[in-house]
Amino acid sequence: MRDRIADFGDDTIVALVTFTQTADLASYEHDKQLGFAVLRDPEREGYRAFGFGRGRTTRVWGLRAARRYLELLRAGHWRALRRPTEDTRQLGGDVVIDADGVVRWIHHSQGPEDRPTVDALVDAVDRARSRLA
After folding, report:
1. How far is the C-alpha of 23 from the C-alpha of 57, rounded, in Å?
2. How far is residue 90 from each of residues 21, 54, 78, 115, measured CA to CA in Å?
3. Mean pLDDT for the stretch of residues 1-11
4. What is the pLDDT confidence band of residue 113, given thresholds at 50, 70 and 90?
5. How far, CA to CA in Å, does 51 sit from each of 11, 38, 82, 84, 91?
6. Which of 30, 47, 106, 127 has CB atoms 3.0–4.6 Å from 52's, for a disulfide?
7. What residues contact 105, with CB distance under 8 A and at least 6 apart?
8. Which CATH fold would you assign to the domain 2-132?
9. pLDDT level of residue 133 (50, 70, 90 thresholds)
């Protein structure tokens, strides 16, 4: 994602919202080298506001997740595999909010590997921007 930030345009703010503990946040940012803002929502108010619920244990820790972890291991990302310290069943998602504060697009993740492509996000931002023009 960080190598595609410019695709969103200069008028777009990209941010990651997490409920990660403050003590873990610096190492998280360092390890991921995101290149964009990281905001904390420790009480998960934003998660609730956007309808990001909790996944079933079998969905979050099921076969899809196991495949993803195997892919990470094969790609040499074994450092990304750490013992969880937080609620692993909390689902997230992706939201595009236009310059007027209107939610224009939302993706509710069904599991940890369920993420839209960067192309889908850029397209959602472009559609939101065109509604303001």
Report:
1. 26
2. 14, 4, 22, 14
3. 87
4. confident
5. 26, 20, 27, 23, 9
6. 47
7. 94, 95, 96, 124, 127, 128
8. Glutaredoxin (3.40.30)
9. low
